[in-house]
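Hi P.,

Sorry for the delay on this. The queue was packed all week, but I finally got your sequence through. Input first:
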Amino acid sequence: MTDFFKDIPAITYQGADSTNEFAYRHYDPNEMLDGKSMADHLRFAVAYWHSFAWPGGDPFGGPTFERPWFGDTMELAKMKADVAFEMFRILGQPYYCWHDADVRPEGATMAESRSRMEEMTDYLGLKMESTGTKLLWGTANLFSHRRFMAGAATNPDPEVFAYSAATVKYCMDATLKLGGENYVLWGGREGYETLLNTDLKREREQAGSFLCLTVDYAKKIGFKGNILIEPKPQEPTKHQYDYDVATVYGFLKDFGLEKEVKVNIEQGHAILAGHSFEHELATAAALGILGSIDMNRNDYQSGWDTDQFPNSVPEVALAYYEILKNGGFTTGGTNFDAKLRRQSLDPQDLILAHAGAFDICARGYKAAAAMLKDGSLEKAREARYAGWDTPEAKAMLCLSLEEIAERVERDNVQPEPVSGRQERLENIVSRFV
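Then the structure:
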């Protein structure tokens, strides 16, 4: 126990009419939906980095948070873990996620960093055992330190590649030991600022080799979870090699990894790529690589990755609709890669930000489930493509252009436009959200 969250009660479900700030109004973890509890459907996870490691800085100003565990000692790292698991107890969420740099201070050498990670892995394991909180996924921070300014796997310096590989190894070892259900690779610096000093072909091949090494090592140590890539466009570099889901899939196909690796999709990154969250989810599902999600939002007026907690039920509902159409989560879940605003200084703010987000997601998830059960959207979609269900239409995909052209002229084909009925479909969605 710590006193950072002193006098903050455990958050419990009290129903939609509750006026208690410290209560769930829509998220009842024990509510059953299609034979599974809401906790098992949503699989909420807290992001260790934004909640406990981020100091509140931005590109124009320094830290605003003054947390008693900020510092570079193992003692403070363990205090941070104590506080984190106290929050997990208050929220009652089933999972959390980390980067290595979030949970252990940097060592003077790789050996010292690894040793510190091993010590913290044991400490986190004891905390997990006492609270029941599980690890959704682990990952390596290969972007914050200045050594990664030109990338990790794609760095022009082979020693940075080697250092990155060694870091991933010990992070995967820690993830396995803690029972992590996935391992994520986020290439925050895997891109370039200018083509004047960049060899695209070489860097892409390095990234492919790095991922192959990671997949091979996961098999070697018996890691049964999913390996996930998190697509990210633009910021912080001008061009990212893992720009969006479609780009990642092309990369995986090129290196024969499309059956080995899936994606962890973040709402904020989807928006930066010029897509909607549901577009990226639907694309991943169609390609068979949908793994897990980071649930946050961007400020649509700022144009950069602001990582805010979700607050739009319609947006969340459309996202979960695509996930439910794909059968729901397996090893994946809903990680809140979201952070407080720089002016939200109080411990209560951290609790309530997550509690509110849980409620938003629960409302959206239940709306998505109701839409899918209602079936109106799927019936309309099936009707729109019904013409392709005829034997003649199916056979056309195997004909030559000459044969198709001959049929068009022979049968005097004169297609007439058919309404897409977008507004009517949007009205259907509005009935549920």
